[in-house]
Structures are given as structure tokens and as C-alpha cells.
């Protein structure tokens, strides 16, 4: 055997020796520190999951990666977040256009100087507790959905991380008073929010917005307010139910159920936020005298006559109207 042949054999043997470990690493090993995510995903068939080992009685906790989760994440980024953005921005733009075209809805007869009790202290407390908690829930939810695109570039990673953490805490804890207030609101006002024929007339006449000086009769709540009431009760219940499933995922059978709950939570909340934006507009800058109902609890008689004439008649029959005394104090009407 020549020296050249021996050297060639030695090189070939060394090459085979070094290549053997490489060939042995080709099968995907989830526990290997050098394995790449894409290698694991490529090795999976549709519907399968990369699982590890656990010592707790929860099989779902062993899941390390599931390719179908990519579809859920893609839906959130491309559909769910965009729906929220379109709903909020679209509603704000629509309200702005409406205000520019119609302006503020005035009390046509002017303030009478006599008031009537619209909501008592308990009703207003429940309303404001629910309103404040909902606003906090909405803002923290919006931050989770689109904050990384809007807020993060302005605040930076550290401040945004702290803000998001505080928002998560607020979301978890303020959900409870919101849910309680939804139940109380239903029990408190459901008898005034049963649909009737007057609501059809109110809707047909556009709530008095179509023809100046013409306002359809309404009782305690008109058709628009009834829509908001049932939107809060039904939408709030669905958001609460899906939110509880997200907070306590052990009640769900699979990750797919959790994903469906999250999507439902986001979409329903988006619709509620758009509706509440309209409610806030009408109750503040959109209608003169409306905010008084939820601040002092008293509304001007002419406001009541314009927007809730049938309810005013019922209250007048009870002698509920009040007038302003010489010093500005409120005294019962004679």
C-alpha cells in the first residue's frame, strides 16, 4: 500500500467519523438545546403539538408549541385588532361629522327653572361605578390590542411595559365591579326597557332629529336608550362570560376553546365600545341638559317635556316637579 493511498484512507475515515454525529442529529429532538423552532414546526403534521414533560395534573401545560396557534395569532393581528380600530375610529369620525352638521341639540323652549328628579343617588352611583370601570377596561383592552403600534413608540419599552402591567391588573380587578353593576342595572331598569310600539315611532322619526321641533313621545327611556340598555346587559354579560373563561382557562377543554373565547371577547368588546362612545356623546356635548340627569339627578322640566313627555306626565301626576327658590334652593312645587 503506497503512502498516498494510506493518507487518502485516513482522510476518508476521519470524514466519516465527523459526519456520523451530524447525521444522528437530523431527527428532531424537542429537548435538544440546538434545535430551531422552524425545524420542530416542519416536523409536525397538521393538528399535532410539540409537548414536553410535566409533573402537574394538567395535560395542556405540557404543550410547548402548536402550529395552529399561528393561525389564531394571525387572525388577531389581521382581523380582530383591525375590527377594533375601525369600530373606534369610525365611530369617532361619525360623531364628529354629526356634530358639525347638526350641532348640539338644544332645549328648544329654554330652561324652565323647574326641575324633576330623573335618577336617585343609588342609580347614579351604580351608573358611574359601571361607567368608570368600563372605561378602564376599555382603555387597558385597547392597549393590549394596539398599544404596541401606537403607545410603545412614544413611551419606549420600559414605560410601556409598566403601563401595560398596571393595565392588566386594572383589567382583572375592575372587571368584578363592572359585572356586578351590569346585574344591578338589569334588575333596576329592566321594567322601563321593555320594547313597545312607542319605540317603533321613535325610531321612525329618528328620535326627533329629522324634523326640528318635532319630538316623538317617550316614557322613562326612549328607544335609543333601550338599545344601549340591552347592549350593555347582553354585551356586558357575553364579555364577562368570555373574560371569566380567559381568567380561568382550566374550565375549557382545549387551547382552541380559549382562542375562540379570546376572539369573542375582543369583537364583542369592540362593538360595546363603539356603542358607548355614542352614548357618551349624546349624554354630554350632544344634548343640552342630558348630563344633569347623571350628575345632580335633576333635569329641567322643559328638557323632560322635549325628550320624555310621557314620563313627565306620569311624574307631574305624582307632584314630583320642583322649582328654584329666591336663593337658588330647590323646593317642592305646590
From TrEMBL:
<dbReference type="Pfam" id="PF01292">
    <property type="entry name" value="Ni_hydr_CYTB"/>
</dbReference>
<feature type="signal peptide">
    <location>
        <begin position="1"/>
        <end position="24"/>
    </location>
</feature>
<keyword id="KW-1133">Transmembrane helix</keyword>
<dbReference type="InterPro" id="IPR016174">
    <property type="entry name" value="Di-haem_cyt_TM"/>
</dbReference>
<keyword id="KW-0479">Metal-binding</keyword>
<protein>
    <submittedName>
        <fullName>Formate dehydrogenase subunit gamma</fullName>
    </submittedName>
</protein>
<dbReference type="GO" id="GO:0005886">
    <property type="term" value="C:plasma membrane"/>
</dbReference>
<dbReference type="GO" id="GO:0009326">
    <property type="term" value="C:formate dehydrogenase complex"/>
</dbReference>
<dbReference type="GO" id="GO:0022904">
    <property type="term" value="P:respiratory electron transport chain"/>
</dbReference>
<keyword id="KW-0732">Signal</keyword>
<keyword id="KW-0472">Membrane</keyword>
<dbReference type="GO" id="GO:0009055">
    <property type="term" value="F:electron transfer activity"/>
</dbReference>
<keyword id="KW-0812">Transmembrane</keyword>
<feature type="transmembrane region" description="Helical">
    <location>
        <begin position="83"/>
        <end position="105"/>
    </location>
</feature>
<feature type="transmembrane region" description="Helical">
    <location>
        <begin position="126"/>
        <end position="150"/>
    </location>
</feature>
<feature type="transmembrane region" description="Helical">
    <location>
        <begin position="227"/>
        <end position="251"/>
    </location>
</feature>
<comment type="similarity">
    <text>Belongs to the formate dehydrogenase gamma subunit family.</text>
</comment>
<feature type="transmembrane region" description="Helical">
    <location>
        <begin position="170"/>
        <end position="190"/>
    </location>
</feature>
<keyword id="KW-0408">Iron</keyword>
<dbReference type="InterPro" id="IPR011577">
    <property type="entry name" value="Cyt_b561_bac/Ni-Hgenase"/>
</dbReference>
<dbReference type="InterPro" id="IPR006471">
    <property type="entry name" value="Formate_DH_gsu"/>
</dbReference>
<keyword id="KW-0349">Heme</keyword>
<dbReference type="GO" id="GO:0008863">
    <property type="term" value="F:formate dehydrogenase (NAD+) activity"/>
</dbReference>
<dbReference type="GO" id="GO:0046872">
    <property type="term" value="F:metal ion binding"/>
</dbReference>
<dbReference type="GO" id="GO:0015944">
    <property type="term" value="P:formate oxidation"/>
</dbReference>
<feature type="domain" description="Cytochrome b561 bacterial/Ni-hydrogenase">
    <location>
        <begin position="118"/>
        <end position="297"/>
    </location>
</feature>
<dbReference type="GO" id="GO:0036397">
    <property type="term" value="F:formate dehydrogenase (quinone) activity"/>
</dbReference>
<keyword id="KW-1003">Cell membrane</keyword>
<feature type="transmembrane region" description="Helical">
    <location>
        <begin position="263"/>
        <end position="282"/>
    </location>
</feature>
<dbReference type="InterPro" id="IPR051817">
    <property type="entry name" value="FDH_cytochrome_b556_subunit"/>
</dbReference>
<keyword id="KW-0813">Transport</keyword>
<keyword id="KW-0249">Electron transport</keyword>
<dbReference type="GO" id="GO:0009061">
    <property type="term" value="P:anaerobic respiration"/>
</dbReference>
Amino acid at each position: 500500500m503506497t503512502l498516498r493511498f494510506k493518507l487518502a484512507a485516513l482522510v476518508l475515515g476521519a470524514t466519516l467519523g465527523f459526519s456520523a454525529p451530524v447525521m444522528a442529529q437530523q431527527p428532531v429532538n424537542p429537548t435538544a438545546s440546538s434545535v430551531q423552532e422552524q425545524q420542530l414546526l416542519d416536523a409536525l403534521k397538521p393538528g399535532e403539538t410539540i409537548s414536553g414533560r410535566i409533573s402537574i395534573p394538567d395535560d395542556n401545560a405540557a404543550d410547548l408549541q402548536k402550529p395552529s396557534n399561528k393561525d389564531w395569532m394571525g387572525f388577531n393581528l389581521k382581523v380582530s385588532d383591525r375590527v377594533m380600530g375601525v369600530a373606534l375610529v369610525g365611530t369617532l369620525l361619525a360623531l364628529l361629522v354629526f356634530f358639525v352638521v347638526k350641532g348640539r341639540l338644544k332645549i328648544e323652549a329654554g330652561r324652565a327653572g323647574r326641575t324633576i328628579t330623573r335618577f336617585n343617588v343609588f342609580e347614579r352611583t351604580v351608573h358611574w361605578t359601571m361607567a368608570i370601570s368600563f372605561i378602564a377596561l376599555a382603555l387597558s383592552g385597547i392597549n393590549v390590542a394596539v398599544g404596541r403600534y401606537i403607545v410603545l413608540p412614544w413611551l419606549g419599552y420600559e414605560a410601556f411595559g409598566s403601563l401595560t402591567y398596571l393595565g392588566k391588573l386594572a383589567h382583572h380587578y375592575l372587571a368584578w365591579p363592572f359585572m356586578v353593576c351590569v346585574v344591578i342595572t338589569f334588575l333596576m331598569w329592566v321594567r322601563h326597557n321593555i320594547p313597545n310600539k312607542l319605540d317603533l315611532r321613535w325610531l321612525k322619526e329618528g328620535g326627533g332629529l329629522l324634523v326640528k321641533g318635532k319630538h316623538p313621545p317617550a316614557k322613562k327611556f326612549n328607544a335609543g336608550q333601550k338599545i344601549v340598555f340591552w347592549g350593555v346587559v347582553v354585551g356586558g354579560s357575553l364579555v364577562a362570560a368570555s373574560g371569566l373563561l380567559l381568567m380561568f382557562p382550566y374550565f375549557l377543554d382545549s387551547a382552541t376553546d380559549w382562542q375562540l373565547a379570546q376572539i369573542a371577547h375582543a369583537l364583542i368588546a369592540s362593538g360595546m365600545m363603539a356603542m358607548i362612545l355614542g352614548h357618551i356623546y349624546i349624554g354630554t356635548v350632544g344634548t343640552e341638559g342630558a348630563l344633569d340627569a347623571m350628575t345632580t339627578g335633576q333635569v329641567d322640566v322643559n328638557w323632560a317635556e322635549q325628550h320624555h313627555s310621557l314620563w313627565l306626565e306620569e311624574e307631574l301626576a305624582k307632584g314630583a316637579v320642583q322649582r328654584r327658590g329666591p336663593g337658588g334652593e330647590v323646593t317642592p312645587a305646590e
